[in-house]
Amino acid sequence: MQLDGNRNPNPSLDGETRAIRQALDRAGLTAGAIDYVNPHGTASHVGDETEVAALRACGLTHAAVNATKSITGHGLTAAGAVEAVAALLQMKHGRLHPTRNLTDPIDASLRWVRDEAVETEVRHCLSLSMGFGGINTALCMSTCDA
User: Fold this and answer.
1) Predicted confidence band of residue 76 (pLDDT cuts 50, 70, 90)
2) What's the rounded Cα separation, in Å, for the pair 92 and 88?
3) Residue 80 pLDDT grade (very low, low, confident, very high; cuts 50, 70, 90)
């Protein structure tokens, strides 16, 4: 977890990129090794725009991306745990769930999983949870054989 000291509800690009880079460093992974990203993805314009900018800044534009909140809604303080479990289940089953209602993504160049689930092997994923006050969490998870 990385705290950026932002006392406002607005996101911090610097704080989010630091959280992602620290998670990659601690996991001993490069951005290129990440197959899949489960973003915080709240569907707020400023939050999603900042998160996509952080993914670009960290070199993660090649990874598949879907948003669990499009299916579950926002679980407030439980959201990060729900997303991490969803990411692990998707890794286990080799199937990424669709991002419901994603018709006009902020950045169409990202590999969004849109209307239908996608079969794919995920060896390394990144689950993001970006919160109020700069409480930013990025968690790298890998399969046991990775």
Assistant:
1) confident
2) 6
3) confident
Give me the pLDDT at residue 87, please: 96
State the pLDDT at residue 36. Answer: 98
Poorest-pLDDT segment among 30-34, 40-44, 119-123? 40-44
Q: Any idea which fold 2-142 has?
A: Peroxisomal Thiolase; Chain A, domain 1 (3.40.47)
Between the alpha carbon of residue 38 and those of residues 5, 21, 98, the distances in Å are 24, 15, 11
Measured CA to CA, the distance from residue 37 to residue 89 in angstroms comes to: 13
Q: Which amino acid is at 1?
A: M
3 state DSSP class of 25? helix
Identify the three-state secondary structure at position 76.
Answer: helix
Tokens of 12: 């911090």
**Strand locations in 1-146 (E):** 2-3, 36-38, 64-65, 95-96, 111-112, 118-119, 124-130, 135-142
